[in-house]
Amino acid sequence: EVLVDIDRQTFPAVGVWNEIECGSFTLEITGDYLSEAGSLHSFTADAQFIQYASQLEGLWDYSEVWTSVEGEQGTFVIDGQVNGTVIGGS
């Protein structure tokens, strides 16, 4: 289990390193995020990553049900690709 911080809110997550494919790992996170405006976002995100040298690449699926301060509800779903430079860590 790992902890993920988003805007000073901490969410428990499950991260698993692939024992065979060096640098590959998955991350699953589910939680209720409260925005600064007061809307609630109940979300789930699943990701598959690979790190090599100082690069991180991966694919992720994200879905949420949001509730506005006024009580309106909606859904949001996205699949995405991640590519970036690893900064810090050990």
Task: Describe how the helices and strands are arranged.
Layout (H helix, E strand, L loop, with lengths): L1 E5 L2 E9 L6 E11 L5 E13 L2 E13 L5 E13 L5
Antiparallel strand pairs: 1-2, 2-3, 3-4, 4-5, 5-6
What does this structure look like?
With 90 residues, this protein is mainly β. 0% of the residues lie in helices and 71% in strands. It has no helices and six strands. A hairpin with a 6-residue loop joins strand 2 (9-17) and strand 3. The relative contact order is 0.18. The mean pLDDT is 92.
Main sheet overview: 6 strands, antiparallel
Helix- and strand-based class?
A: mainly beta
The radius of gyration over CA amounts to 15 Å
Q: What is the 3D form?
A: elongated
Kindly, what is the distance between the CA atoms of the first and last residues, rounded to a whole number of angstroms? 18 Å
Helix share, percent: under 10%
- How big a fraction of the residues is strand? over 45%
Order of helices and strands: EEEEEE
Strand order of the largest sheet: 1-2-3-4-5-6
Q: How many helices?
A: 0
Tally of strands: 6
Q: Segments where pLDDT lies below 50 for 5+ residues?
A: none
Q: Mean pLDDT across all residues, rounded? A: 92
